[in-house]
Write a structure and sequence with these properties.
The protein is mostly helical. It folds into 2 domains: 180 residues, no CATH class; 158 residues, no CATH class. 69% of the residues lie in helices and 5% in strands. It contains 12 helices and 5 strands. The strands form 2 sheets. Strands 3-4-5 form a 3-stranded antiparallel β-sheet, with no helix packed on it. A two-stranded antiparallel ribbon has the order 1-2. α6 crosses α7 and α6 packs across α8. The longest helix is centred in the middle third of the chain and has 52 residues. The two termini are 29 Å apart.
Length: 350
Amino acid sequence: MEARAIEVLTDAKRSVARSGTLGFSPAGRARPSRDPGGTGAARDSGGTGVARAREADETAVSIAVSHDAILRQVVLARYYAANRRRLRDWLSGRAVDGAWFNINTGSTQLLAIQPPEQVCGRVPEVLALVRAYLPPEDPRRVAVERRFGTAHDLRPSDVAESDRHLLGVALQGAYLLQAMANGRVRRFRNVLLGTFLILTVLVGGFVAAGVHWPQAVPLCFPGGDGLMCPTGLHRSATGGDAPQVALLGLIGAALSAARALRIHQELPTRYSLAVPLVLLKVAIGPAIAVFGLVALGSGLLPGPSEINSQPTLLFGALLLGYGQQLLTGPLDQRADDLLKSASPAAPATA
């Protein structure tokens, strides 16, 4: 983010320097030189010279205004980036989205003052972003592809002011849809984290109840001369049953999450969903293991009503934790769809 902001500001300063009629104030703002329209002799050479000088002055003022606007955008981007460590700004996306909004706005404004050869160099960048975010039938995408899609030998002399405007409008539209797509990713991330916290509290409370009141969380099955519990053969449930089942469910969920991460393709976006998905999986795993064994013991789910082996019971808890993938699989698919829509590496679809 910081590198992109510096790059935008550097390009703006380079465009100002190439104008030959502007300098910089101590604050870094662009300002006209003493004689921006040319020498006094050129102004006195006739009406043509005066008109040319006036046109040069107007161009210099326009470049200076654009440069100062870009400078303000970069300053704002750095301000937002400096505040991204706050939890509220992190959750709302204010810091990250605010920084990228100002960087992208400055990048769009840069098209108005860059020399023609640099505009030609940015055409592939604009085309890539337009194709990544604007749908195929979008008029802005259609116009850009018609004008530049086949222009492999585009020359600086071919770049008109209307081309700058067309590229700027299309780029602005692509940035807007990019921000909307990243906003959907951020909201989904927050939902995952919120669900993880709620499940953690509920499962933690249920396990704590099983520790203090073992009879309230029945995890034992009839077997042999007593009850086969996760902690072994006993005459009644013990306080260690619920934590042991929850731990095995967590291990099973972690194994499933590791497998999902191995096949998961992380795309370049502003927000990542890998960690929230893993956290949710490891919270669901213990819940399914505990409640699954309770349901099996009560006969609500089809399965063995008697278990005579502690390893069998423990392995069942592990499998139940691993089986959380059946519930979180659709969430993985939803996450992939959101990341693809927010990533510039994936083309936009209708």
